[in-house]
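The authors assume throughout that readers already know how a fold can be written as discrete tokens. For illustration, here is how one protein appears when written out as sequence plus structure tokens.
>
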Amino acid sequence: MASARVFVARMAGLAVLGPDGEQIGKVRDAVVSLRVDTLPPQVLGLVVDLSARRSIFVPMLRVADVAPSAVTLASGSVNLRGFDQRPNETLVLGELLNAAVTVRESGADGVVVDAAIEPTRTRDWAVTRVAVRFRRARLSRRPRVEVHGWEGVSGLDVAATQGADRLLAVFDTMRPADVAAALSRLPEQRQRQVIDALDDERLADVFEELSESDQRELLGYLGDDRAADVLEAMSPDDAADLLGELSDDEAGRLLELMEPGESEPVRRLLRYEWDTAGGLMTPEPITLAPDATVAEALARARNPEVPPALASMVFVVRPPTATPTGRYLGCVHTQQLLRAAPFELVAGMVDTELPQLGPEAGLGEVTRWFASYNLVAGPVVDDGSHLLGAVTVDDVLDHLLPQGWRDRDLAPAEVQRGSANGQARGSGVRGA
């Protein structure tokens, strides 16, 4: 594969050759997946005009070489279905050209006249440079054109160049934590467009990843009725953390609007201090009666709605199994379940030696517990041997990090690039 940088406008009209050298069509445009941050977007593929006056999509993985005279495809099949642009896709020549941008370093305003793409170390292609034309100087006969790195200009992210529908399509491919980070950077009007369009379940997932200040601000915009619906969709421990940031009157009003079955576990969590095991725990761990089989336990752990940390362990209790449960007997690690026969009973596999956390245990004690036993979840049991819930290591980390850590972009660029590449491949496989 060619390693040289190539400008998309110069690719337009180039012949597209098959592995045998036969011309298939001509390049019309390049399809990219814009991001919500400043990192270079991935090139998903090319739009190729066939001789039959029809356009198809060719993934970049099918491109073997880009030369000044032609684009050569690698061996393998190409989907000949007509090109249909998806909501999370952007055409470089059709949509990015003439987009208004600002050079970050100088503050100069201009418009995009071309964009350069080049392969990365992972064999993906990315848009790495943009050619920007500025207004013609008074004494100059020609407008000035400069080439800047993608990160060196602003105005080309999804939020700036695309409508709310396109932005939502991109958000659908992202993790809630990444959506929360992107949402916090959007202008207020665009934030509200996104919030209005998200359903309560998805918005709840995003709310759990927002900083306390963003949570309070956006909760006020929602209004009491929808705020209560979103709180119901959140995990009880995250809902309790959010309500704990509000005044007693506001929290009480929202709790009254929630369904009793959803508000009751949240009320229980609010009885404990935020930095205790009771305040950190989730009241919805996987609980089983002693006569449950390994197959039943694994089915509960496979539930995609159960967070990975909670799925690492099941807790065995005497009925009733809803928290606060009957007598707590012990726990069974998921790894142990995977090594057992499906028909075996969990009662014969219970770990009774693992120390328990009391609901009043402080953050320091909880942290030492996780460090000592190398686990990601632990039982919280009261003096009457009732299981109240489980603390997970992610809840502990949330409280160990400095206050307001969600307001900062702490993820290294390499991690973010990896996330972007994973997202873009999901779109790019369509033509494979």
Remarks:
- Residues 413-428 form the longest helix (16 residues).
- The chain has four domains: 6-87, 95-159, 174-271, 287-400.
- The radius of gyration is 27 Å.
- DSSP finds 18 helices and 18 strands in the chain.
